Each structure stands twice: as C-alpha cells, then as structure tokens.
Amino acid sequence: MAELSVETSFTSAVVDRTRALKRFALTDAFFRSLTRICAISVLVILGAIMFSLVEGSWLALSTFKLDFVTTEVWNPVTIKFGALSPIYGTLITSFLSMLIAVPLGLGIAIFLTELCPPLLRRPFGIAIELLAGIPSIIYGIWGLFVFAPFLQSHVQPFLIDAFADIPVLSSLFAGPPYGIGILTASLILVIMILPFIVAITRDVFETVPTVLRESAYGLGCTTWEVTRNVVLPFTRVGVIGGCMLALGRALGETMAITFVIGNAHRISGSILAPGTTISATIANEFAEAVGDVYFSALISLGLILFFITFIVLAIARYMLLRLERQAGN
Amino acid sequence: MRMTASLVAAAAALCTAYTASAADISGAGATFPYPIYSKWADAYKKETGDSLNYQSIGSGGGIKQIQSKTVTFGASDMPLTAEQLEKDGMIQFPTVMGGVVPVVNLDGIKPGELVIDSNTLADIYLGKITKWNDPALAKLNPSAKLPNQAIAVAYRSDGSGTTFVFTEYLSKVNPEWKTKVGANTSVQWPVGIGGKGNEGVAGTVTNTKGAIGYVEYAYVKQNKMTYMRMINRDGKAVEPGSKAVQAAAAGADWAGTPGMAVIITNAPGELSWPMASATFIIMYKQPQDPAASAAALKFFDWAYSKGDAMAEELDYVPMPDNVVGLIKKVWADQIKAKM
C-alpha cells in the first residue's frame, strides 16, 4: 500500500503543484478579504456611532444652538442645558493630570531602563502594570473613602494657607477644603494614567540600540545627557504616542471621577472646588433622564467628548509630523 | 445588609431563571425598589413557579421601556402625571414606600438630637444659611451646642427619586425654592457637592466635618448615621421611621388624586414624616399581551398580601391596607386582563 501511494504521488506531482498553487492563491485571497472586512468593520462601527450621536443630539443642539457650548446652566427643571462646565471640567482635569503624570511617568521609565539595578526592574515593572489592571470603580471608592479625607485634613488646608497671600495662586487654591473636587479628581487620574505612560515609554526606551547608548557613554556623556540627547530624540514618536493614549483615557474616564469630583455644574476659579466632567455627567444622569430634550442634551455631551478626543488626536498627529519634519532637516 | 440580601436574591433569581417553565413576568425601571422586588420574586418563584425578570435600569429607562412595550411593567420613583398616563393609555400604582432623611456630621451631636424645619432646610440648600450656629438653627435647637462651623452641603448627583422627594418637598413649602430650583430627579443646585448614589452622599457626609446631606431612611438605619428630626406640617418634631412614613401615607388622598400620583411630602397628621414617597408600577390598560399583564398583577397581588414582612426586613415601608384596597379596585376597573 505504502509503495503504491508513493508511486502515484510521484506521477501526479505536476498536477499537485498547480493545485497547491491554486489553493495558496485562494487562501491568500480569502485572507486578504477577511482582513479587509475587519478593517472596514471599524469604519462601519465608527460611522454608526457618529450617526447615532448626531441623530440623538440633534434635538438639543437645534434647541439651544451655540448656547449649548457657551453657557453653564444645567437645569433639568426648566429644561435649559449648557455644557460649558462639563467641558471645562473635562479639559482641566485632563490637563492637570497630564501635567503631573507625564514628568512622573518619564522619570519612572528612565529610572527603569537606565538606572535601575536589573534585579529590581521586574518587580517595579510589574507593580506599575498592576496599577493599570485595577478597575476604575475601585479607584473611585478608594478616592472617596480614603484619599479625599486625607487630602481634606492634611493637604488642602496646607495648600490654602500656603498660597493665601499670593495673588493668582490664592484664588486657584481657594477653600473651603471639601476633600473632593477638581484637584482630587486630577490626582486620581494621575494614578490611573501613569501605567500607560510608564509601560509604553519604558518599552520604547528599550528599543534604543545599545550601540548608540554605549557610544554616547563612551564619549563621556552623563546619564542625563544620554537620556536627553540620545534616548528621548530616538523614541520621541513612541513617547508622544504613549502620552496621547494616556490623555485619551483621562478625557474619557468616568467612574472614578464621578465619585471624587463633586459633580457640581459650576465653573470655579479654584481647583479645590467641586466640578464635573462630560463623562461623569452622563454617568450620573443618563439612567433617570426623563424628557426628550434632557436625553438629547446628554447625547450631545457624548458627541462633544467625541469631538474633543478627535481634536486632541489630530493635534497629536500634527505635532508628530512637525517633529519628524524637523528631524529630517 | 440590604446589599447582601439583594445580591443573594438576584443570584437566586438568576439560577432559577433558566428552569422557568411557567409565565415569565418582565419589568424594568427604578433602582430604589430593586432589592425588595428581587426578594419578592425569589419567594414568589418558590411558591408558584412563576418568575419575575426585573431590570433595575433607572426610572427614566423604565418609562422608556414600557412606552416601547418591551416589558410588561415599568417602574418609576417619580409618578407620571395623570395626563401622561391618559395619553399613553396607562395606569400606575404604588408598591412600597420609603422616607428621605436629613443627615449630618457634627462633633458631639447624637442621632436625632438636632431638629430642623422646612424653611431652614431650604435656606441651607439655597446657600443662605452657611454656618451651623446660625440663629435659625439655634432657635430650633436651644439645648444643642452648635459650632461656629461652615455647613458643607451634600446632594445626590445622579438622577434619583430621593432627590425628587427632597426637592418636591422644599418646592411645596418654600416659594423661593420653587422659583429658584424647583423639583425633579436632578436639579441645578445653588451650592454644595454631589455624591453618586446614597453611598456617595453618605460618604461625603461621613467624611466631611460640618456636612449635611439627605439619604433614604433604610440607608440611615443600616449605617447608623446621625439623622435629624423634622418639624412636620402640624408643627410637631418627628423621628424618621416606618411608623412615621405610614402615618403620612395613610393621610394622603389616594382616591382623589388622578392617576394615584401622590407624592407624600408635607403630609398632615401629628405623627407624619414630611419627606416620604412611594415607588410606582406603570402598566397598560389594554395590554398587548393580556396573559403577561395578568401574571404581573397576580405577582403584585401576592406581594401586597404576603410581602409586607419581607419589605420591613429590608427597611421599606409597606402600603397601608386601605390604599391596597383602592389599588385592587383600580386594577379591576381599568386593566383589561383578568387574573
């Protein structure tokens, strides 16, 4: 039996090859269209979301027109809605958290790749990654019951006193110390987005060719100079990418923020005062929003968040392009 | 406690849902009555084999679902007006009640030690009274030691029946509140910080010295919070509790209010608690599926006759008997589905 089969396969080898080639071409075509469908499905889903957001928000946007983004009234009783305070809250909490998280995250990543004893690298790395795995509701509850009382009794009174006599800062840190508010929300965000920045920047720092690094050290560069002039320029694109991912998370974070921001539809000069964000407002009010205009106003908030994220990503792309062009010159 | 009880009930309901052979009753809406509906559903299933599938998605969601006829009944903490009901051909009836209670965090003040009246409460939430030693509070509490401390106002940030009862009461008794803020499941608060859910308000109040907030009575009881007594419509200071809420409900005009849309705030009676409310079930008069509606009515009929003890275990307040009689009359007269 075995001999026979070997013989037949030998004689029909040519036929088999064409058949096999045909099969390869077929599977390749199948594979190509499969991946294409996957890619297109993203566009379809995005388009569908855009469509339903625009459709859902039409009523509120056509009722309030430009007032929707320029006023801070949010009154479900008189059915008057303006989204200025959630927009402000979203931008300010994201800005403050990035202000702290980016330098902190870069510092951690540089320490882990350049300075950390190899033995400690893994424990540190894993600890940071574990932070990313904690559900946001846990951060929210922890923020409300542990972190906010701590800030209220220890940090905020100190801030209020310390800046009381300095003109601009005194209004930025004006009391009373509630514990929860814009600052607390921003600090919780810092902890939540830090793992994204650290994990990504650490990974891209590790892609710097050892030969580049070693030649810099060989020329007598200090660790700071190597980081500043070799590692960072080489990994610029990846670092900015990581930061943008973190910013995206900060803009959209909902549950933790809802617990600690104080959920007040007011714009206050003080970062210790309560505020609200777009996603927190939606999470708070969506379930009990009775009435078409109210419902539509909440969907409009979603649309605005969509736009903000889009604009942020566009700016990031533009910055990357400019950086690359500069590097080219 | 209520959390565990409701979780157990929910888990039990889930486990048994797959073996359901008899009629399945579906409903959706308010989160406030969810623990008791699950508990009733569990006991009802054991007794009759019929199961109830209740999604606690919020009152707004419940109203939407019943309007699009995807469920047999909708549940709402805020009653629909008679016109709304008439327009859609629906009726509503109350199932259980709860009270809303002001809570505080002040050093050296025991639960029930402080007394507050409607106008003082309104002025605090309007931002007109900002210190605990304000003359208005001192006059109500001559024997209490009130500190010269700022009042931190806390409110529910999520839309809720609790907020509706609170703001409806203040609108009823205080004209300035009515024009400036009004009543709804969420409003534009003049001052204060918002916490998400009863636990959020409770957390804010417990963590902030000098805070005042308002939460469900069950929450006060289970967490032993520092509640305030309130001056009711008859001018008497009352303790919050099951008795006080039932006293308020008994005096309300259920028969005379169109659509039974009674909000039990500022109720007359010496023993009445001023901020209470029922949670409502909304159904069609001429349902698409009369059998399903009949099954739902049978469930609520059973709950009224056998569910009172279970409700009290979870610190809900059962409906008084005269109101239940009235509800059954409305069923018989208006719903075209024979039990």
Q: Nearest-angstrom radius of gyration of chain B?
A: 20 Å
Kindly estimate the percentage of residues of chain A that lie in beta strands according to DSSP. under 5%
The helicity of chain B comes to 40-55%
Mean pLDDT of chain A: 88
Largest interface (CB < 8 Å): A-B, 34 and 33 residues
Helix-strand topology string of chain B = HEHEHEHEEHHEHHEHEHEEHEHHEH
Strand content of chain B: 15-25%
Note the gap between the termini of chain B: 35 Å
Q: Structural class of the secondary structure composition of chain B?
A: alpha/beta
User: What is the name of the CATH class of the largest domain in chain A?
Assistant: Mainly Alpha
Q: In percent, how helical is the residue content of chain A? A: over 70%
Strand order of the largest sheet of chain A: 1-2
Describe this structure in words.
The complex is a heterodimer of chains A (329) and B (339). Chain A has helices spanning 2-11, 13-64, 67-70, 84-115, 118-133, 136-162, 167-172, 182-205, 210-218, 223-252, 255-260, 278-285, 292-328, and strands at 74-75, 80-81. By secondary structure, chain A is an all-alpha fold. Chain A folds into two domains: 1-64; 66-328, MetI-like (MetI-like fold, Orthogonal Bundle). In chain A, strand 1 (74-75) and strand 2 (80-81) form a beta hairpin. Chain A starts with a helix and ends with a helix. Chain B has 14 helices and twelve strands. Chain B has helices spanning 2-17, 34-48, 59-67, 82-88, 118-126, 135-140, 161-173, 175-180, 197-207, 217-223, 242-251, 290-306, 308-313, 321-334, and strands at 24-29, 51-55, 73-76, 90-105, 115-116, 152-156, 193-195, 211-216, 229-231, 237-238, 276-284, 317-318. In chain B, helix 1 (2-17) packs across helix 2 (34-48). The model of chain B is unreliable at 1-5 and 7-21 (pLDDT under 50). The A-B interface holds A 73-78, 144-145, 148-149, 152, 176, 178-181, 258-259, 262-265, 274, 276, 280, 283-290, 295 and B 31, 57-61, 63, 78, 150, 152, 157-160, 181-189, 192-196, 200, 203-204, 207-208.
